[in-house]
Design goal:
This protein has 145 residues and is of the alpha+beta class. It has 4 helices and 7 strands, in the order αββββαβββαα. It has one domain: Alpha-Beta Complex (Nucleoside Triphosphate Pyrophosphohydrolase), CATH 3.90.79.10. The protein starts with a helix and ends with a helix.
Length: 145
């Protein structure tokens, strides 16, 4: 018997965002045990009452310790039942660009296990969570505009 949508996705549709944190021509990539230890951008859930950029700043700062200045929302999409995520989930996501304006990199250890500053083309060579190759391509296009 097929599982009901409510049982398969008990949290419903989740709205999330991630931060392309740029500094000196490089961006910060991180690893998370929640995402099969693949490389991804810092981020998390958007809470009720928060704007997309406010939530992304909050989540990224919590996870990295870095202070951010919003530039723009770069892209958005939908991810249903990711092969990389640790549980069934239906995400609506936003990927946003930020300048790093301060703080000291200190990973939130229960969320992230590793980090690297890389150029976008170097980042594309990593084992990325499934939506990020497309996001990084759009970021490279943004930089060349």
């Amino acid at each position: 018997m097929e599982q009901s949508i409510e049982k398969r996705f008990p949290r419903g549709v989740e709205t999330v965002s991630s931060a392309i944190m740029q500094k000196d021509g490089k961006i910060l990539l991180t690893k998370s045990p929640k995402w099969s230890n693949k490389w991804l951008l810092p981020g998390g859930h958007i809470e009720a009452g928060e704007s997309i950029l406010e939530a992304t700043v909050r989540e990224a700062q919590e996870e990295t310790g870095l202070k951010l200045k919003p530039i723009k929302i770069l892209t958005f999409g939908e991810l249903i039942d990711s092969k990389d995520f640790h549980r069934p989930a239906h995400f609506i996501y936003f990927d946003c660009i930020f300048d790093v304006i301060g703080g000291e990199l200190k990973l939130q250890k229960d969320e992230l296990t590793e980090s690297r500053w890389l150029t976008p083309s170097e980042a594309l060579k990593l084992e990325l969570v499934e939506t990020y190759p497309e996001t990084l391509q759009k970021y490279i296009e943004f930089l060349s505009d």
